Every structure is written in C-alpha cells, then in structure tokens.
Amino acid sequence: MKNDARYIDKKFLNINSLKSDMIITAYTGFGEKYHSMDENTCKFIQHNFKNTGIIIQRGEKKIEVSADEVRVGDRLIRIFNFPPPLKKFTIVTPKLIKALRYRQIIQFDVKKKITLADDSKRDLLEIIQMVELSTKKLTRKEEKRMEAVRETNELVQKVNEGLKVRQNASNTVENIMDNARRGNTNIDDIRNYVDNITQNSSADAMAAIASLKASDQTYTHCVDVGVIFQTTYYNIIQETGRTSIFKSLNQAILSAFLHDFGKAKIPKDILDSTLRFDRDSKEMEIIKSHPTYGAELLAKMNMPDSIINMAHYHHVKMDPAMLSSYPEGSKYENVYFETRLLSIVDAYQALVGRRRYKRSWSPPATMRYIDALSGVEYDLELWELFLKTMGLYPKGSVVELSNNAIGFVVSVPHNGDDPERPVVAVVRNEYGEDLEHHELVDLQIERDLSILKDLDNQEIFGNNALEVFMQIEVS
Question: How many Å separate Cα 84 from the centre of its chain?
Fold first, then answer.
C-alpha cells in the first residue's frame, strides 16, 4: 500500500508534548528573558531567524517585524514562516527539543503527521475527519477554544515565573520595613520589583497565586495587594472612563505595595506574631496605628498625595463610626476613589491569603462575603466594578463541576457573558483520578455542565494547590 502522508494542525503545544512525527510551523511561547529582551537576546533572534516572520509587542502595540528590526525591550510573541534554510528549526528531533528547552522556547504550533497506511493505530474514518477538520475554516467556537488554550498556557507559564518574583519582592518589603525602623526609608529596591512586574505583564498571574499560596500577614500581603490592585484598577479605569491619578502603571502598583508601610513602626514581635490578637487588646491598638504612621513616613519622603492617601485611609469604612474603621475621626469624603478600591482589595486578600493562625476562605466565598458588606462598609459602585473584573469565581478558584470533576478557574467571563460560567482547567476527573492531560472546559460553550460548588483548595490538594496549578497543560 502506498504511504499517503497527511498532517493535522495543533495549536499552542507545550514543549513537553513535542514528538518526532511533528513539524513546527510557529514558535508561540517563550521564557522570561524574551518578555523584555536585552541586547544579547536580540542578537540571538537577529542571528538565527533571518527571513522569518516575527511578531513582537512594543509598548502597547503588537507588530510584525523582521529579525533585524527587533529592539531591546521588545516582547517576543511569535516566530513563523520559516524559510527553507531554517528547516532544521522545524523538524522535531530530540536534539531540537533539547536546544529549544535550553533557549527557553516552550510553546509551538505544529503539524502532526498521520499515515493512512497505519490502520493499526487509527481508524480510517477518524483520519479522514481529522484531515477535513484541519482544512476547513475554524468556527467561532473553535477560535474561542484556541484562544482559551493560549491564554491558559500563558497564565500557567507566568504563574511559574511570578512565584519567585513574589517571594523576592516580599523579602524586599520586609527589608525595607526593617531599614525604616532604623531610620532609612529608601524604597529603590521595591521599585525594581515593581518595574519587573509591569514590564513582564505578570500582575494578573501573581494575583492568581494569592489564593493558592500561603502568605504572611504583612510582607507577602503587601505584594499580593499590589498586584491585585493593579490588575483590577486599570480595567476599572477603562470601564468608567475615569482619569487615573497615577502618572504611570508603576506608580499605581507602588502605591498599593506601600499601603501598609506604617507597619515599619510597629514592633517586629507584634508584627510577625502568629497569634490572633483580640479586638480590644493592646497589641491590636498598636497595629491599628499603622495607617497614621504610614502617612507620616510617606509624607516625609515627599511621596505623591495618592500614595499617602492610600496608606492613611485604606481602613476607613463608609460609616467611620464603625469599630472596624480607623484612624478614628476620619471622614469618608477624604478617601480617594483609588483608596476605596484598595480597601476592597485589602479585605479580599486578607481573607483568601492563608495565614499561620487562620484558615483561608475560597475566593468565591470571599466575593460573596464582601458583596454582603458592599454599600455598608465598602463603596457599592466600586465593589460592583471589582466584582465584574475579578469574576464570581476569580482565577485560581478550585471548583467542582456538575459531573463531579474538579478543576481550577483559569479565565473569567467578560463582555456580557454569564458570570456563573468561567473557563475551568479540569485536573481531576469524576472518578477522583488525577489527570496527566488536562481538559479545558469553557462553560459558556459546554452548556450541559455547570459549577456545582466552590472548594477549599487546601482540603482538596493540601499544601500542593499551587504546585498542581503550575502543572496544568492544555492543548
């Protein structure tokens, strides 16, 4: 029988899924060093990928350029249209896989060979259907799924990269507060981490980490609040048409990072205690002084009014007479729009963040709780905007579907889609078996499935929820 070779297309395939019967048609996923390329990385691209198609992100725009036009600071998005002399970069071999892994090129579009003569491996009818699928125009449903696959794999990749940044930034916050106790209030080190987060567009992924990884009550809390604030604030600004009070994206996230800066004047044995202090205890009264201390410290450093306001008033409630509202005597009309949002973010992170002295809440349960307080403690308009951005089931939420499968929410509905139906990466099937190949379920499309309930990730995965999330791979 004649060997009739055909190919089917596969999009956004992880490097671990590359096989020797595949031909790469595009490089679509890259490690951290390609997110804001330095001179050496640019030279690598210029030298190796002449005459290919290259798509980069430069500022806010995605543009197609030649290899010679790649610049320092560009983010690499895609390499495609390989000319014949670069055939060696497209035919999958163990040697190529090793080289790609070394160069941190980690996601691909491929063509996979199927051989009609190989009837022992695949039914002829199935092959014909697959060939037809590969040649027909994609439906909107298929396009939406491909986009969801790309976004999910990119989110997981950024979570992997963001974990180290989060820990280092947390350590830096602690060092800055320790230095401030000794009279040194230089914050240049934390500015560097803010730059890293904004340049690599990793705030969204780091926000997902907040509900999956234990955090302390001060240092990592500041980092988590910062990235959640940045993720939600600019979506809200675009939604409302408001003008931002910040000069840049960096200043916005820095402001949120420094909201608890006044805790630098709280004795470290109280700040780092694993005990839960009573509401009326002396220790709690000392802790409640941190907004006033923060405003004083930041004013002495000549920080903008926006940063000072966020540090000073983020615990002020709509009714300042409430026992949970402080500093005493504050007026809600003095609380900036940005600070009112920060107070919601601060409360959200405090509840979802795992502490040594308390259990965390699931993100959906936290959203329901704050929803009940909106219009009473928190600005109702801002809460509704925050809810719309984060979703009823924020990214990283663990949910059980109506077929009893368990998965992580990886994308939340927008643009009028049903908020009850996010995209879920299933990691455990209905029989309780952990999956090696994960299924992506878009509940907007899969109408026969729905979310049965949200789950406590620690009860399901113990201390390994983040590790399980970081292993998600969909195609």
Answer: 38
Model pTM? 0.72
Q: Rounded distance, CA 412 to CA 442, Å?
A: 10
Nearest of 386, 292, 280, 369 to residue 324 by alpha carbon: 280
Q: What is the pLDDT of residues 272-318, one digit of tens each?
A: 887 888 888 999 999 999 999 999 999 999 999 999 999 999 999 99
| Cα–Cα separations (whole angstroms), residue 360 to 6, 287, 447, 463 | 52, 21, 31, 12
Nearest to 146 by CA among 335, 35, 12, 251: 12
- What b-and-e string marks burial along 352-386, b requiring 16 or more CB atoms within 10 Å of the CB? bbbeeeeebbbbbbbbeebbebbeebbbeebbebb
Three-state DSSP state, 451: strand
CA 255 vs. chain centroid, Å, equals 19
Query: Phi then psi for 109, rounded to 5 degrees?
Result: -95, 140
- Give the C-alpha distances (Å, rounded to integers) separating 250 from 300, 318, 386: 21, 28, 20
Show the 3-state SS of 17-49: HCCCCEEEEEEEEECHHHCCCCHHHHHHHHHHC
C-alpha dist (Å) from residue 382 to 14, 123, 170, 345, 439: 39, 56, 27, 11, 35
The phi, psi pair for 162, rounded to 5°, reads -75, -20
For 453, the enclosing helix (H) or strand (E) is: strand 451-455
pLDDT tens digit string along 34-86? Answer: 988 999 999 999 999 999 999 999 887 889 999 999 999 999 999 999 998 89
